[in-house]
Amino acid sequence: MTEIRKKQDRTPVPKDWTYAPAPESRDVVSLRDRYGLFIGGEWLEPKESYETISPSSEETLATVGQGSAEDVDRAVAAARAAFANGWSSLPGSERAKYLFRIARILQERARELAVLESLNGGKPIKESRDVDLPLAAAHFFYYAGWADKLEYAFPNRRPRPIGVAGQIIPWNFPLLMLAWKVAPALACGNTVVLKPAETTPLTALLFCDVLRQAELPPGVVNIVTGDGRTGAALVEHPGVDKIAFTGSTEVGKAIQRRLAGTGKKLTLELGGKAANIVFDDCALDQAVEGIVNGIYFNQGHVCCAGSRLLAQESIYEPLVEKLKRRLETLRVGDPLDKNTDVGAINSQVQLDRIKELVAAGEAEGAEIYQPPCRLPEKGYWFAPTVFTNVAQSYRIAQEEIFGPVLSVLTFRTPEEAVEKANNTPYGLSAGVWTEKGSRILWMAQRLRAGVVWANTFNRFDPTSPFGGYKESGFGREGGLHGLEPYMRFEE
Ligand code: NAI
Ligand code: MG
Known about the structure:
By secondary structure, this protein is an alpha/beta fold. Helices cover 39% and strands 16% of the residues. Helix 2 packs across helix 9 (228-236) and helix 11 (284-296) crosses helix 12.
């Protein structure tokens, strides 16, 4: 007895259970002061430029080009020349070699790219390291596999590349969205002009270095940085055969209007307001994890985020209670800290948009909950937020907030859940939490959403097509379906 007591006495008892800082090193990334535009395999000096910052500290990271209409014209010409001078007629097995090479280099340089993604975009290193980078490499591996099998993918349809693809991507998954767009385009034998989002150009610019390392022929991929004006110039350019766009529904609609009647191909991946539907027979703790992952992953800057929680009335109270308790454990702060769960909001503009919608939610009568957390002084931050008492007509139940804000609604029957879930102009994704397989299938048939996750959320795989219904856009990315928008058929 005495011995045991003695031992207990010697055991160090921690007084403080908070996490010690665990920062990832910034030194793995060497940034240049200035970046040009990557056209025809060369860095061209832009006439205009702007500074790109880190949203977690507001420090300037580099000066990058604001591509003009003339720059876009040069990039399209370089892409056209590369298409005609060999890339499109290269055997698929040869194109595949480049894609495999790019995939392997992305893996080799994953740490460097992940750190840069978190620096420039504000997302936690845990996510850029474990989600963005592995998935980006996986997309190149996956489409590399298709490059020499297109005849089998589309039997008797004589698939051919379409030409120059103009690709416009957003800031929430900068390198991953680049991979989603570039990999299938190249696998099918097209060449590319890509415009990254204005707030997150740096991983795309570092990717140019990856392309050089992979010895991709000049002009096959061109990267022109800049804001919406650069994007608009790409959309307008007569030498572009296809536009692939991911971003806001507003800009998507404008692009569709511009392209009407031009014969250019178009795919749009736009906003969402996904319902995450929780039935009373589900594994509740697992559902809480899924809800947290569904809306607080990447600060909620996710088009398929589970931003509307539909809770069955019979479990509403314990579910919300557990959710609030779980929220208290989320660590908000430095994106480069390996323990961080929720990083910085991508930009001041986005932060203002989130604040505006949250204020509207409070004004309309919803009840707000935010766990106690200290937000850093500099940079753009928003605490994880839950709204209860939300009516379907409230703006926070209708509009895409694109931030760490969850709106909780309730339902009684499966029919009511379907009706409420589909009561949105969007239709990108949905989640269903229940123990019953038959109910999952019943729900999946009725939900008007491109992806329906069952007992999980925000799960991605390059083999699985992704895309929307209604105002969430059209066309699919990923999987066999993702090849089709980059081909024409000589049937
Ligand atoms: P946005 O649609 O303006 O930007 C997305 C991309 O389109 C960027 O590269 C931008 O430079 C480009 N762009 C902007 N105007 C253009 C034009 N007229 N022609 C061609 N390209 C143009 O999105 P923004 O303003 O950054 O975010 C606004 C809202 O859109 C967010 O709050 C969110 O709700 C939604 N959004 C949805 C995304 C998704 O993944 N579906 C991604 C980003 C934003
Ligand atoms: Mg915009």
